Amino acid sequence: MEPLEVTETLEPLGGAEFAPRQTYLNTSACALLPRRTVEAVTLLAEETAAGRPDGAGSFDVVDEARAAFARLAHVAPERVAVGSSVSVHVGMVAQSLPSGAEILFPEGDFSSVITPFTVRGDLKTRFVPLERLAESVRPETALVAFSAVQSADGRTADFAAIRAAAAAHGARTLLDATQSAGWLPLYAGEWDYTVSGGYKYLLCPRGASFLTVTEEAQDTLLPIHAGWVTGEELWVNSYGPVRELARSARRFDEPAAFLSYHGAARSLALLEEVGIERIEAHNKALAARFRAGVAALGHAPVRDDSTVVGVPGLGDRSAALREAGVLLSARAGNLRASFHLYNSAADVDRALEVLAG
């Protein structure tokens, strides 16, 4: 596969794959779909409507998406399970913990990382500021669960410190990479579990989500969604109990939503063609331009080098920006801008122009 022609400027990456009709700075809510992804989903829908043999969807394409995500996450495909959402993946982890286990979270992290644990009622949950997460791990901590990048304001966690603290106390780790996978390099093997919703920076349709599990952590994770698709041999388990669950992380698969995964395979291929390191540099440069511009207007953005930029106290400006054709989010009182490969310096400047007006 030949790489796409890209440059080191702040012009969009991805060639003709994207054609937004307004200034779209809202990838942290939902990404734009590449043209190739729309074509793949449309083709399968048409095959299904026509009753053709391929209309049911392809497990081979699901495995193509699994393998592409594995390469982006720097793990073997055998360590990747597919599913529909982060909360479903996290729920599996939550249901696998013994009663009384302590889970440590950052304050204000995304609900889907937290609620699957709190609804059990028999687990100990503890919340600390993000900057104190590593120092707050203690011997009784069973799991540290946190987002790589905070959804509300774009702050990035201290990966090395958290990983070291968890290892020192024998705690397992759950990293939610939903706001980072696709622009920040992910080394999933460094964590016991990672979860990544596909419809943000991974450019996938909703309904595609990825879980990675280390081989050691796999031994205590309950495959609560087990069904015929989770068997070691796929086509011999349609009736009666599954004879043998997959030996790999595929035992934790949900039945794949084929329309989503036919699109996901194409989206992940695009990310590989462009390159995550190149996307990271592009996105961070745009975010830095926006931070500097917001500061020049007299506002104080959250200090970080994330591609997600939170500006406290400006959340109420999101409606006026939308009316001017600039799409951002309001989260926890912050105006949240989020940049990706299809954005340009002109997009940043347009948002700043509206904010200044």
**Strand runs, count:** 12
Which structural category fits the helices and strands?
alpha/beta
Number of helices: 10
Order of helices and strands: EHHEHEHEEHEEEHHHEHEEEH
What radius of gyration results from the CA coordinates? 21 Å
The multimeric state of the shown protein is single chain
Helix content: 25-40%
The percentage of residues in β strands lies in: 5-15%
Overall body shape: globular
Average pLDDT level: 95
> Which ranges are low-confidence, i.e. pLDDT below 50, for 5 or more consecutive residues?
1-8
Query: Kindly, what is the distance between the CA atoms of the first and last residues, rounded to a whole number of angstroms?
Result: 46 Å
How would you sum up the major sheet?
Answer: 7 strands, mixed
| Strand arrangement, major sheet | 2-8-7-6-5-3-4
Fold and architecture overview:
With 357 residues, the protein is α/β, with parallel strands linked by helices. The chain contains ten helices and twelve strands. It has helices spanning 35-50, 59-73, 86-96, 111-118, 159-169, 215-218, 258-274, 276-296, 318-323, 345-356; strands at residues 23-24, 80-83, 102-106, 124-128, 141-147, 172-176, 193-197, 209-213, 308-312, 326-327, 329-331, 334-338. The strands form three sheets. Strands 2-8-7-6-5-3-4 form a seven-stranded mixed β-sheet, sandwiched between helices. It has a three-stranded antiparallel β-sheet with strand order 9-12-11, covered by helices on one side. Helix 2 (59-73) packs parallel to helix 7 (258-274). It is globular. Residues 1-8 have low confidence and may be disordered.
